Amino acid sequence: MPDMVVWWVAGGVLLLLVIVQVCARSRHPIRNAVGGMLLGWLSLLAVNVSGVFTGVTLPLSPLSLGVAGAAGIPGVTVLLLLNMVMIP
Fold it and tell me: What is the C-alpha separation between 83 and 81, in angstroms, rounded?
């Protein structure tokens, strides 16, 4: 995937999260949306760094980055569960 497409997808996910935060009447919608995205990406990074010790890693693809950015920590948890179910 070209780099520009990744940036457009990340911007779209950010815009969607801001809209959800505004609809939920959050006090700081942009800060909450960016914070959720960062927590998701950091949890994906933590899983891959700890994979040296545990042997469990997740590929860094546009799909996994999108799920981690949009859904945050629960999204990374779902990715881990799907990884465990799909790969014996």
Answer: 5
Please compute the mean of the pLDDT values over residues 48-54 and round it to a whole number: 92
Q: What does the alpha-carbon distance between residue 84 and residue 79 come to, in Å, rounded to a whole number? A: 9
What's the rounded Cα separation, in Å, for the pair 5 and 59? 18
- Extract the tokens encoding 16: 């969607």
* Predicted local distance difference test score (pLDDT) of residue 44: 93
The b/e string for 34-69 (b: 16+ C-beta within 10 A; e otherwise) is: bebbeebbebbeebeeeeeeeeeebeeeeebbbbbb
